[in-house]
Amino acid sequence: MYLLLSTEEGGFARFGFWLEDSTEKRQLVLAGYVDLVVTNNSVESGDFEEIFSHELGHLILKAIVGAPEVGQSRKMHQSMTMTDYPTAFDEGFAEHFQPLVRDATANSHLRKLNSGTGSSDLDRLWLSAADGQLRTDGVKRNLFIHLKPLPESAFGEDPDLYRLLSIAETSTVFLPTELKNGQQMLASEGVIATLFYRIVNDEQLRNHYRESLFYQPFLQYASMDPTKAITPYQNINLKLFAAMAELTDTDRNQPAIVRLVKRYATLFPDEAKRIYTIFIETTWGATASQQLASQMERAAEDGSRGDMIAFREDRPFPLLDGTIAEVVAGKRSLDANLGPELWLVNSGFKIADAMWDTNRTLPLTINLNTATEPELMTIPGIDRVAAQKIISARRSRGYFQNVSDLNPILAPEIMHRLNLMSNEMKQAQPYRRE
């Protein structure tokens, strides 16, 4: 893999280029490279380290798994935004390298940022700065499994819906006692980044070496001892890569991160309990059990209020341990509480492909099982009250099975509109992110 020192705006993972030497002889190099502008300032600030490692993540994933799957969301991806399963997996894997960089860096500025002494609240007024901090601090603190509060502007008489949506998407405020549902979590690159960060840092997985034959392709000499030639960090990555290499297209309705964890558990059954435990504890059980997720929320609320009596009554740990045991034993699926994706296209409501772009040309696509109140309010006929009724009904059951589940909530004319939007989505062309 290569770095192209670009003279123009860059920061993208690409593949294949012509290399010209000093004699003007050219050769085609079929390899990945990162197109990036590198300046003294970007090196001193640590931006180079974080961006380069992030983009290398995309190249690694593409080299092992192939071209990214196509998702349905048109929204700009960010750590604090929900998009779709493929986008979250691709970006979340790349994103998890950024906190790893800050853990290992010798860069003085990044070390200050990591310790909390290198920036102020004013530094994070700008979107990219807030996003960058969340990609490290937020990933480590597992913030992204939590819901955000509804922006105050939603309670006005006639809110600007695009502004409302933009504020909701870019908000860095999370509610510690309220969980995203399973689909929302796995459509969040921040959650995926946290999962990868915790997996590669787990001492049990890092230090559990496989049989010598597994490492032979990666050793210079067959007689080398893998435990001495391969570091624990390399070890966990080799095992992850082995699982990634066996991901197939047989069930693209299942999130790639779920397929990866299941494949890892199949390849290394003696490590299955540990990787399932990391996944379920990180997601607070939301993908596997609605009962567990609801009990985790109650316990979080009890704990936040310091209510010891209620916390003891609602303590979720026996149910958490039981859910993990069921998944390990094959009695419960890791994604038992995800439900189907129910995508609609709102052709009448256009968004831009970047938050700072004023050219709104993309129709907003909405998954009824991940949609927020501001997203639902963009649909004609659905106001804040109706949107909150939809969210409340979804939270009570975990997910909607189909569009018709909204019949008891919405008027017939709105249901007719949703069905038209659903049918239009089925005819829409795939959206490939650049």
Structural account:
With 434 residues, the chain is mainly α. It folds into three domains: 2-184, no CATH class; 200-328, no CATH class; 343-427, AF1531-like domain (DNA polymerase, domain 1), CATH 1.10.150. It is 49% helix and 9% strand. The chain has helices at 40-45, 47-65, 85-95, 97-104, 108-115, 127-141, 161-170, 182-186, 189-201, 203-207, 212-215, 226-229, 232-244, 256-267, 272-282, 290-305, 308-314, 317-328, 373-377, 384-397, 412-427; strands at 2-5, 12-20, 26-36, 343-351, 362-367. Strands 1-3-2 form a three-stranded mixed beta sheet. Strand 2 (12-20) and strand 3 form a beta hairpin. It is globular and about 70 Å long. The two termini are 20 Å apart. The mean pLDDT is 93.
